[in-house]
Amino acid sequence: MVMQRIQAEVENHPIVLFMKGTPQFPMCGFSSRTVKVLKDAGVADLRTVNVLEEPEVRANLPRYSNWPTFPQLFINGELIGGCDIAVELHESGELARMVAEAQKA
């Protein structure tokens, strides 16, 4: 059941961040930095899932994505990665392009 929920989140929202906490109150530095670079890249409508409030999602997302850590960023249904990758993509300008394309769709 939880795997279908994760898949629905990823498929029904162009940009989804599975994070610790919320954008207003991030509960780890990596989640906070990822939210910041997404906002800087122009994300207008960021869908987030707080894995601290959803232990089943937290336990199963690494199996779904084959990515062990949080946060996890998905754009257009595809795993982009975690904080370090999001920051690198932002610094190269690539994240803004990906965000713009996802928000157009």
UniProtKB/TrEMBL annotation:
Residues binding glutathione: K20, R58, F70, C83, D84
Listed InterPro entries: Glutaredoxin, GRX_PICOT-like, Monothiol_GRX, Monothiol_GRX-rel, Thioredoxin-like_sf
GO MF annotation terms: 2 iron, 2 sulfur cluster binding; disulfide oxidoreductase activity; metal ion binding
Superkingdom field: Bacteria
Location of the Glutaredoxin domain: 15-80
Pfam families for the chain: Glutaredoxin (PF00462)
SUPFAM superfamilies found in the cross-reference section: Thioredoxin-like (SSF52833)
Record key words, sorted: 2Fe-2S, Iron, Iron-sulfur, Metal-binding, Redox-active center
Keyword tRNA-binding on entry: no
Residues given in the record as [2Fe-2S] cluster binding sites: C28
The keyword Iron-sulfur is assigned to this record: yes
PROSITE patterns reported in the protein's UniProt record: GLUTAREDOXIN_2
Family: Belongs to the glutaredoxin family. Monothiol subfamily.
Cited PANTHER family: GLUTAREDOXIN FAMILY MEMBER, MONOTHIOL GLUTAREDOXIN-S14, CHLOROPLASTIC
Entry protein name: Glutaredoxin
Organism: Luteimonas salinisoli
